[in-house]
Amino acid sequence: MTDKHLEPFDAVVLMSFGGPEKDADVLPFLQNVTAGRGIPDERLVEVGEHYYGFGGRSPINDQNRALLAALEQEMAERGLRTPIVWGNRNWEPYLTDAARALAQDSGSARLLAIDTSAYSSYSSCRQYREDFAGTVRALADEGLSVEFDKIRQYYNHPGFAQAELACVREGLDQLEQLTGGLDAQRQRILYVTHSIPEAMETASQKRTAGYEAQHRQLIDWVTGELGERAVLESELVFCSRSGAPHVPWSEPDVNDRMEELSEQGVTGVVLVPMGFVSDHMEVKFDLDTEARETAQRLGMDFVRAGTVGVRPQFVAGLVDLLEERAAQVRGDDVDAPAVTAEGPLVPGSGACAIDCCLGAVERPTHPTWAV
């Protein structure tokens, strides 16, 4: 196999949120996450109980290490010799440190990023582009020239979609084994994603179908692909709401909806964490702990389906997306597949434009694609 590179890029960066590794990391990690919001340390210690209950160690870091290794292997099997590194927003290894190491020998680096969120919103896309811009500025002050590009948001790329479909099929198999059969009258599929403020949802609709609509489009595709296994009604629910109680966020909460369904005679649920690429804290605490406890209290049969993690379809799909974006930058003809009606969120689609998924305060972003 002939070695090749993702021209014109010097390296790939796997970009993530970050998380603490031990009890002593929890408070400084949360201080990073909430910087500038004026939240007292006492309140952060209360919030940190989720992490302390797991020994202060977020599962996201080990999952990113596993994904990094899987991506390295997939790239090597394709003969791609472009290096890939990992950088975080809120904890080590920090994005700026990772980019500095790549640029320090030659004085510059052109980087292609993968972020670990599939959908369009401020938190799941634009904020990462703000991080890239912040790193570009910080390293320019050190005399280093760094440029970022990114793969498109990939909720409807076939690799992510097929991996999600496999998660749903496995979850249905588990519910069937648990209960002896699927019952359309008494069981439901609940697709779970992170709740976001209504204002963030509205901003996501300016240049894309919108955060919630993207989930619903993918749910519709999965339902169609299930064929004869599509016997249970399904719906989108939310978890991990935070912020002031008077600020409206996405609803219904997964626990509230389970309460309502129980009152309607539903006795079993499959929770599919469609909004999360791996089993990080929102999944391990909000679903595996809180939602499971809700199901036990209600006497409901409960299955939590898997996440895409390092499933081969997902990993191969991410490398497909790296090759797709590199080809686009080179000016090659590119097939950009998508399984939903919105189509691929490539440059020119409106996604990642300068006004796409704006936050409460407008900050510089990098890259900014033309509409």
Tell me what the structure shows.
This is Coproporphyrin III ferrochelatase. It is found in: Cytoplasm. One of its GO terms (molecular function) is ferrochelatase activity. This protein is of the alpha/beta class and 371 residues long. The protein has two domains: 164 residues, 3-Layer(aba) Sandwich (Rossmann fold); 147 residues, Rossmann fold. It is 43% helix and 13% strand. The protein is built from twelve helices and eight strands. Strands 2-1-3-4 form a four-stranded parallel beta sheet, with helices on both faces. A four-stranded parallel beta sheet has the order 6-5-7-8, sandwiched between helices. Helix 11 links the parallel strand 7 and strand 8. Helix 1 packs across helix 2, helix 5 packs across helix 6 and helix 10 packs parallel to helix 11. It starts with 10 loop residues before the first strand and ends in a 41-residue tail after the last helix. The model has no long low-confidence stretch (mean pLDDT 96).
Low-confidence stretches: none
* Cα end-to-end separation: 38 Å
Strand content: 5-15%
The number of distinct β-strands equals: 8
Helix content: 40-55%
CATH topology of the largest domain: Rossmann fold
- Summarize model confidence as the mean pLDDT: 96
| Number of distinct helices | 12
Radius of gyration: 21 Å
List the secondary-structure elements in sequence, H or E: EHHHHEHEHEHEHHEHEHEH
Q: Which architecture of the largest domain would the CATH scheme give at its second level? A: 3-Layer(aba) Sandwich
Q: Tell me, briefly, the overall form.
A: globular
